[in-house]
Design goal:
This protein is of the alpha/beta class. 37% of the residues lie in helices and 16% in strands. Strand 5 (114-120), helix 5 (125-137) and strand 6 form a beta-alpha-beta unit. The radius of gyration is 17 Å and the shape is globular.
């Protein structure tokens, strides 16, 4: 796999700004973006960033572009990324898929690149649903890799039938890998380092998945990603009627 063949786009609530950093998810997604861009791949990270910072910012030798999505909304929510959570989910699910199609997917496919789009956590499920339908309506679904990176607490909020069939499930979390395999989904362990990230996102290494053997990130006591979810669960509103999402 070469940087000349693939472009990576990550979609997350959290990101590198102090405003967007609640716990382990921010460090996780920022680390993924850094690994990919440092390996020479064009990488775009969409998240709800600090409204005082530029909406678009290129970093890491120009290979990584930060997109602080819906700055107008963040400007009305000084409490951080999980304030106005429902409105933020709508901003991901409604304007963003069409934006990605017009500004990234179509141009890249014409240039014979493969766009790889990775969404993180249960809040991005509607985004994946809408993007999957949009790509199929344009005849582009087979040209784009869609992946979903979640941790175990997200399992309480989803039903597998709502997850688009061809989305690749990637995770550090052995509980997620077990659940995905039980639901007959394609699952890929997200190992450390650029090679591990690339193997998971590009659909390699599925046979090596060993969900009963946790990665170092999960074995570590007090995993910050789990702490993030515990905090987010206590402060975020829960929706009972969203398709594919279950109330806790």
């Amino acid at each position: 796999m070469r940087p000349a063949d693939h472009m990576f786009c990550l979609v997350s609530f959290e990101g590198p700004d102090d405003y967007a950093r609640v716990g382990g998810l921010a460090a996780h997604v920022t680390g993924l973006a850094s690994e990919l861009s440092a390996a020479g791949f064009e990488t775009h990270l969409f998240y709800f960033g600090d409204p005082r910072l530029p909406a678009v910012q290129r970093v890491v030798n120009g290979h990584l572009t930060l997109h602080r999505w819906a700055q107008w909304l963040s400007a009305t929510a000084p409490g951080g990324v999980y304030e106005l959570e429902d409105a933020r989910r709508w901003e991901l699910a409604t304007p963003l898929p069409a934006y990605l199609l017009e500004h990234l997917v179509r141009p890249l496919v014409r240039a014979q690149f493969t766009p790889v789009i990775l969404a993180t956590e249960w809040q991005t499920l509607e985004f994946l649903q809408v993007l999957d339908r949009l790509l199929r309506s344009e005849g582009l679904r087979s040209k784009v890799v869609l992946a979903w990176d979640i941790a175990a607490p997200s399992l309480e909020r989803i039903t597998w039938s709502a997850v688009p069939k061809d989305v690749r499930l990637v995770s550090h979390d052995p509980e997620v890998l077990r659940a995905g395999m039980a639901a007959a989904r394609s699952v890929f362990p997200l190992n450390e380092g650029a090679d591990g990230v690339l193997m998971a996102l590009l659909g390699q290494g599925a046979q090596s998945a060993k969900p009963d053997q946790p990665s170092r990130a999960i074995r570590a006591e007090g995993n910050p990603w789990r702490v993030h979810h515990d905090r987010a669960r206590g402060r975020s509103p829960r929706l009972a009627r969203d398709p594919g999402l279950r109330p806790v």
